[in-house]
Design goal:
The protein contains 3 helices and 2 strands, in the order αββαα. The chain is mainly alpha-helical. The protein has a two-stranded antiparallel sheet with strand order 1-2. The termini are far apart.
Amino acid sequence: MKIEQALNIDTKRKVNVGSEDMSLYEAARWSALIAGLDVITKRAGQLKIDLDKDKNWLKPLALQKYIEEETPVAIAEINQGLECTTSPELD
């Protein structure tokens, strides 16, 4: 089952991220990538690993799997934010 069918959300919907226009799906993938890098950075800090010097932490398949798992969550979160900002005002 595709993400858009499971979530009942139009993932092709255009969103504006900074100065870039992209689909909701693209924005969610970028968001998941940034979140994954944040997790790596925090964990490396806990383990006192210098990410600039030590490149053994590079695990592209693990990062890809994280992005795949987090994309539906990011789609739902971004869509919720869009609905909050585009919903009509309640009196």
